[in-house]
Write a structure and sequence with these properties.
InterPro entries: C1-like_sf, DC1, Vacuole_Formation_Reg. Keywords: Repeat. This is DC1 domain-containing protein. The structure is a single chain. The chain is mostly beta strands. It is built from four helices and 18 strands. It has a five-stranded antiparallel β-sheet. Strands 8-9-10-11 form a four-stranded antiparallel β-sheet.
Length: 241
Amino acid sequence: MYGGYSCQRCPSYFVHSKCATRRDVWNGKELEGVHEETKDVEAPYVVIDDNTIQHFSHIEHYLRHHVNGVLWEENKRCRACAHCIGLQSFYSCIDCDFILHQTCAGFPTSIWHVLYNERLTLVTSEASIFECYAYHRMPNGFRYQRDDKVFDVLCGTISEPFHHPSHDHPLYYIPHDERRQCNGCNELASLVLACIESDCKFVLDFKCATLPLVVMHSIDDDHPFSLRFGKNTSGKHWCDI
């Protein structure tokens, strides 16, 4: 038998002591006698009416809600994730060009992440390009940050279990000594999300896990391109570039 840790609020949650004190799980802080942190995470926006919000990153103006597809041809980019608005619903400023995907507007102001065992804070101030810790891309939008750990908002909001339309099973971050091959791009990566089913070796790196499902491309300005996966593809899906 192993000793373990249990949650005072969730009696069914139990973790072996060896697992709970792993370096990638525990931050090394002894909390004996310390009151549990119960402070609620501040909401990212205030609802003004059915179609209007005031977002904490842009408190000087209200943001108006728009249904998907309105800005498809204008190539507008979300201030949070820096991706094109595309066919997604979004909020845009009534008085300036500030714009957020509806999904990005709802990202929490602080999080715990599977790759880091300290609370991260959502930073919305304009910044030069930074390097995301989960996948080494160089965005310039909002980011989750603490000390020298920085995540872009797409990687930062990945939580477990992670569900992706390319795979039937939930994915988890499992530390691994060796780099593993991503099923999306076939590249090797150190930080990956993996299926834990015994007979399944499916793996996604954070780059592929956060790819947009629909994009536009200059090769065909009139039609959107949808992301296809494995068994849903066929021999006719060859790159035209």
